[in-house]
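Why this split exists: single-chain examples teach little about how molecules sit against one another. For that reason, every record in the complexes split bundles all components of an assembly together and asks for one structure covering all of them. Below is a record exactly as it appears in the raw files.
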Amino acid sequence: MKTYAPTGLPAWEARGLLRHTPPESVPITFRLSTPGARFGAQTLDILITYGGVLLAIIGLTWTGAFSWNGLITFYALLTFFMRVPYYILSELVWNGRTLGKRMVGIRVISLDGRRLTPHQIVARNLMKEVEVFLPLATLFGASTMDIWLGGALSAWMIATLLVPVFSKLNQRLGDMVAGTVVVDNPRPVLLPDLSAQAAARGYEFRAEHLDIYGRYELQTLEAILREPPKSPEARKRVSEVAQTIRKRISYDEDLPESREWDFLLEFYRQQREYLESRHLFGDARENKFHAATGGQG
Amino acid sequence: MTPAAPAPAPAVDPIRSARFRTEREAGWLRLDVLLRKAERDGTAALGYDEALELASLYRQAMNALSVARAISMDKALLTYLDALCARAYLVVYAPQESLRGLIGRLLVQGIPQAVRRSLPALLIGALAMMLGAVLGAVLFDVDHSWFYTFVPGGLADGRTPEASTAYLRSTLFDGGPGDHDGLGSFATFLFSHNTQIAILTFALGVFLTLPSFVLTFYNGLVLGAFWQMFASKGLGYELAGWLSIHGVTEIAAICIACAGGAQLGLAVLLPGDETRRDALRSRGRDAVKLMILAGLMLVCAAVLEGFFRQIVQTTEIRLAVGWGIGALWFAWLALAGREARA
């Protein structure tokens, strides 16, 4: 997968994004999962697997079909299956999503953008065993342990846990070996078009009003307009925004409090139409500094 | 997904990008329905018409995304289309592997071919184990106290050089005064112990093969010391039976895991014409297959150990079962998946 910072976005907006160009040559964006989400998914998986084993053991004890000895053997067998094979099988069956990952809404994809090969899935999960489980089990399993060995194991665990935090694509060692990356499962949510809600509310903006702001401010305003204020504080913030905009664009008409929301909606619509048509004519205005920086405005 | 709220009838003309959106929205929503179905039940669940529809809607959505990036500043729309296209891309270009075909291919071709390709690495694994066993046996002969150095206390479980011949015999055959529970827990211990050894040998192989070799060698040491101790009491033949029934499979599994690790290490040490990273990646494929094989064999060994060793009580049958199963493994790995000679 050719990865590069999404073009046209400032670096801080592009962080955590992974772009891939499919054969259709339209770059699409994946959002890398945060280490927190992955940790959550891993915890859920551990709870599910060991919870399942515990329930099975309790169920078997209750039926009394096995002796104590048999139960121990059974437990050893189950925990064996619940570790690497569980992760491999679930990622195979659900195409890169274990149960925990499904709940958190993340998935594994291959860095080359093709289907996950079984080899990749096996490799990344075997490495997980080495990175996390074995040190953990050894650390908690041994009753007496050399302080050096304990320290070395702890250092190893901390180091492997820190790898995804510092790696550029949030990959852990297993991901690097397998050539995979964990991304948020894209969740398309189609929100209503704000420009359609703002029909004829009686404000007319002229070119000099609309020349001030750029794309970034427009989309910030969009984010504000997506959440109509419910509390008095929120209403106050919206009012501040509206008055600031009115002053900044030197809109000379009076703006009573009751009409501020309409003002913003209408301003959004006309600003967007204006910017979009400027954009079509090759005049891209990234933000309010467009006149100063590019000299294109 | 929240359905689009019905827009109030606009009194002015909708702007260009809003018109663009209303014209195509229905197609996107339909694509979303198809994607949901494909993600839930797999692409195989789609009918012929639906699959065609999916392909065409995917291209339209991609097209729309490209156009929207040029003409629209509606962030909600851009984010939506980006996510929709990313999801559709994964369904179209990264569909799920069919599990049945996958396992079949792996068993019939993948694993046996990988084993045959890794003969040098396998030789290293077997060599490590044999050297360890010979050295363990020799050292035990020289000085019995070596036993305590090699064999961890939990594993020995009372079977030390001081134990009486009768006691040692009883641990090999049930029905004697042997402690039933003790043997059972030993079996589980050995099983989980060997699994961990196998995984460790594999994973550590990447550090230049040496740790794999050492671990396998150590496993050989334990085995050799154990063997020699029983042999010194005249129980060598009986121990061979006791060990063979599962050990042929289990020890072979450890050797194979070591070979997997050695493959990784050899890729780092002797990458040939490739870069080390590429060599690691390409030989990693065989290494992983060897590891799967080792896992399979360990499971079989556990079943043999847990059930058959307790049921089968004569040494002759134990030997026959153990080596018979070993022969089956060998036949599978040596013969399966060979290309027909032209």
